[in-house]
Design a protein that fits this description.
Number of domains: 2
Pfam family, one: PadR
Helix content: 55-70%
Organism: Stenotrophomonas terrae
Protein name: PadR family transcriptional regulator
Radius of gyration: 21 Å
Order of helices and strands: HEHHEEHHHH
Distance between the termini: 39 Å
CATH topology of the largest domain: Arc Repressor Mutant, subunit A
CATH class of the largest domain: Mainly Alpha
Number of strands: 3
Structural class: mainly alpha
InterPro entries: Tscrpt_reg_PadR_N, WH-like_DNA-bd_sf, WH_DNA-bd_sf
Strand order of the largest sheet: 1-3-2
Strand content: 5-15%
Length: 165
């Protein structure tokens, strides 16, 4: 990269190797779910910026069934997956890995969401965060109230725009 060449932002992969597997099993461990629900849950984790494909989810669910980590019951023409005692044991054995995968997903979802913002908004957010950090806790009550009101006003504007679109 030359000094005049702009710095390229690199967006992380949404999930690390094996993370989807761990996240799916942990979601089933929380409550029985259909495959489509699992896809939507993962998508929600990523504020719909990333959605796993059925081609990556359903083979994992089939593998879970073959490993006897989950059982599936027919529910209106679809399968609802339930965790088994073997699946619970697997989750317990891999609890640290599951938590790491969840933390990585939370972090990457924020990075991906931020990177998908228009550059002027991303830059303004960066400048705002930097300005807050420079204050180093030196806040007066009137400043706090005024800045909080401005943030609330900006939030309401974004929400209003989202509802109109």
């Amino acid at each position: 990269m030359t000094p005049t060449e702009p710095r390229r932002r690199t967006t992380p992969r949404p999930l690390g190797r094996g993370d989807l597997r761990l996240l799916l099993l942990s979601l089933i461990g929380e409550q029985p779910r259909h495959g489509y629900e699992l896809i939507q849950q993962i998508s929600e984790m990523f504020v719909r910026v990333y959605t796993p494909s059925p081609g990556s989810v359903y083979p994992l669910l089939a593998d879970f069934e073959s490993q006897r980590w989950v059982s599936a019951e027919e529910d209106g023409g679809r399968k609802r997956y339930h965790i088994t005692s073997l699946g619970q044991a697997q989750l317990k054995l891999r609890a640290e890995d599951v938590e790491t995968a969840r933390m990585r997903a939370r972090h990457n979802s924020r990075v991906i969401a931020r990177e998908s913002l228009p550059a002027p908004l991303r830059d303004a957010m960066h400048q705002f965060t930097h300005a807050l950090m420079l204050r180093k806790g030196e806040w007066q009550a009137p400043d706090v109230a005024r800045i909080a009101a401005l943030i609330a006003e900006a939030t309401a504007l974004v929400q209003q725009q989202s509802q109109e679109n």
